[in-house]
Amino acid sequence: MKCILMNKNTEVLTVEYDSTLHVFTKIIKIHNIDYAPYSLKKLFDNGHEDELKAALSHWFKGRGIPSFRDHLDLLLAHLGVRAPEDLLDKAFGLSLTDQYWLKPKNENIKYQDINFFEHDFSYAPFLEISLSNTPSIVNEVSLKTPNNTTDGKLKKAWVIEDNIRYLLKGGSLIDGLEPFQEVLASIVCRRLGINHVPYTIEIRDGKLLAKCPCFINSNTEFIPASQILEQEVKYSSIEDFNNYVKILTNHGITKAKEKVEAMFLVDFLLLNTDRHLGNFGIIRDVNSLKWLDVAPIFDTGSSYKITDLQEDTIIVSDEGRFFYEVLKFDDIIKLLPKLTKDDFEKLAGVVEEYRCLLEKYAPVVNSSERKIGLLCFLLERQINKLNEVNSNEE
Ligand SMILES: Nc1ncnc2c1ncn2[C@@H]1O[C@H](COP(=O)(O)OP(=O)(O)O)[C@@H](O)[C@H]1O
Ligand SMILES: [Mg+2]
User: Fold this and answer.
1) pLDDT tens profile 206-262
2) Which residues are registered as beta bridge partners of 6?
3) Residue 139 carries which DSSP code?
């Protein structure tokens, strides 16, 4: 079928879309490539117009629920679809992370009539299926929802409360610690004055979830770092880091270096193993295409990843991501600026705040005093390590 790829109200491409295979078979007309997803625009600018069609299909598929989503088979069975791709076009491909959508060519549909930032959507069935321990069978599942287009491994669901869009995220199947870690990241960022997505704990059906408001609105989009660095990866931490900062700065983002460094500093404190290039990026205005700022820090849940827990020992992953390399946290920290005395003062009492959080919900997740003590020890150890780096260099 003939469709127009739209970015909010702007026509980007007229395309032939195969609604069975969920791929694009032809690019019929380029209207306004500047408004295309950033990676496609770059491909075009670099003279690869012939690759646009394949890249568009790849990008579109990437909007869907990934094949590695926890318990994907159960979710699909409950929704009555074969594969995540079947969900992609059920609600014009709309999402709550950007403003792209597929408009059937001959239909008079307008962004303001359909977008999920301004219009309610059905979420109860999706929430039930995704985040209940024992989901009841939902007969009529509305697929007019941005829940068709969520990324990431963890089970999640967009919901609306008091007209605010919130993302609810479950914990991993292994230790379920992620919601606590998201909140810890928020605590650390709040204290250090780092722009972040504020996560809170939500208990639903006896299950512990992380909850955060949507950081995108109907005038903005999130562009992940993976798209920004596509086609220019150097596979050298420092070179990719410098290049990323340069691109952001050239697009008018102020203090880009400091902001990216602050994110890796938070990752060091939490030993976050999952800062891949889909988990950070920038926010762009979809009307003016102006790059507004780095995205607030989100998805710091994969931290204090316990590999072994004994009576009085805890072993956690000690390697993190730094652009396209996996490095020991102790080496990553050498690449970052030192914390100031003022910063350390702002962190005073953070371990106790973390302990209170863990203790408050200990009965829900059945965690022992011993485990809580060891987790707090980890945070304290990371702060001390930062302190040591400072004193060694003085
Ligand atoms: N608060 C938010 N507002 C808007 N988009 C979000 C928000 N949180 C996450 N996202 C988008 O959803 C994707 C998946 O969420 P994420 O927290 O990374 O889940 P996971 O832990 O499963 O990777 C992110 O990569 C980002 O594109
Ligand atoms: Mg993620």
Assistant:
1) 889 999 999 999 999 999 999 999 988 888 889 999 999 999 999 999 999 999 999
2) 11, 101
3) S
Tell me the CA–centroid distance for residue 210 and ligand 1, in Å. 12
Geometric angle at alpha carbon 277, from 271 and 280, rounded to 5°: 75
Q: Which helix (H) or strand (E) holds 12?
A: strand 10-18
- Give pLDDT tens digits for 61-73: 999 999 999 989 9
What the block records as the tokens of 82 is 């074969």
Rounded distance, CA 354 to CA 298, Å?
18
* Nearest CA, atom 19, ligand 1: 152
301: tokens are: 């849940």
The contacts of residue 20 (CB under 8 Å, 6+ apart) are none
pLDDT score at 389: 79
Domain range annotation of the chain? 220-393
CATH, domain range 220-393 = 1.10.1070.20
Rounded to whole angstroms, the Cα distance separating 58 from 48 reads 15
Task: Pick from 69, 151, 196 the residue to mutate for probing ligand 1's pocket: most ligand atoms within 8 Å of its CB.
Answer: 151
Rounded distance between C-alpha atoms, residue 254 and residue 356, angstroms: 36
Q: What is the DSSP letter of 295?
A: P
pTM, two decimals, is 0.96
Nearest residue by C-alpha to atom 23 in ligand 1: 152
